Amino acid sequence: MNPCHREIFSPLELSGVTLRNRVVAPPMFQVRPVLSPEGLAWHRRLAAGGAGLVVVEGTSVRRLAHRWTPEHLRPLVETIHDEGAAAGIQLFGVVSDEPTDVNGPAAEQIETLIDDFARAAGVCRDAGFDAVEPHGAHGFLLNQFFMPDRNARDDEYGGSLDNRCRLAVRIVERIRRLVGDSLVVALRHTPVGEAYSLDDSLVLVERLIAAGLDLLDVSPAKGEQVADLAAVFKRRFDVPVIAVGGMDDPDAAAEALRDERCDLVAVGRQLIADAHWPNKVRQGRLDEIVRCTKCDQACFGNIADGKPAECVLWGDGELERYVRA
Questions:
Q1: Are strands 17-19 and 184-189 parallel, antiparallel or unpaired?
Q2: What span, in angstroms and rounded, lies between the C-alpha atoms of 103 and 100?
Q3: Is residue 124 included in any domain, yes or no?
Q4: Is residue 116 in a domain?
Q5: 72 domain-assigned
Q6: Range 315-321, long-range pairs (CB < 8 A, 24+ positions)
Q7: I need a surface site. Which of 99, 206, 268, 313 has the fewest CB within 10 A?
Q8: Which three-class secondary structure state does DSSP give residue 49?
Q9: Which residues form the domain of 48?
């Protein structure tokens, strides 16, 4: 192992779960049913490449709470565990089967949403997942509740900062009450928005930690200094922090960890291009890494066209070789 990168490959104990290293394969939408053979192969590939934690893409809490059982999910968890990685899943909040704006749901619908998050986490725990991560970033529903420019509610979930924090805090509280200490509870959050500040987010995170949060996934808007923003939370709170963005540079990832600006580094598109980035970095085979060019043609480009995410750098049969009969 290159000693310059040793920080990336130190284990991390995370609320009873031991991660083999500090690399996170973050939730990435792939336009494949996650429980299909191809969906399982996608996650097997990420885990086999050496990531310490593989997080399944945002999945509807309604589906998890009311349609899928632990038996449905167990093959997905086992696929990840069999390759040595811990398994997480991102919980995506919806109020109905249609996209719903923050200002639409009535109070009783919000209570149902909170209950669905908790029930979904319970199903995931029983399936064997190590972690759940409510999605509270990038303008999706939970983030909308926090955004004063999107949230025009005049009830207990809108208006003041206290009220705009309430939904995420109650979701974490309810999940923690249901699962106890048997599951790592994370939350992905965008720390600065057009109408809210870093100080606002510090208030939110303080309350989330009091509610039972184990892990903070800092996912800034594009172009922000990711590790520097993660460091603000890392230095303020005694909770592990994930930094995402620019961490596909092994030197930058190791430096961020060495400087204690974060505890984990999430690597996204680079793991689509070459899932074995962690293994190759660990083994000092940097010249063998298939480098993501950030062309976005077959990952985001395919998704925009409703096609499964791939990479223009893949060879023939790249995903098929991870399909198990």
A1: unpaired
A2: 8
A3: yes
A4: yes
A5: yes
A6: 318/45, 319/38, 319/41, 319/42, 319/45, 320/41
A7: 99
A8: coil
A9: 3-316
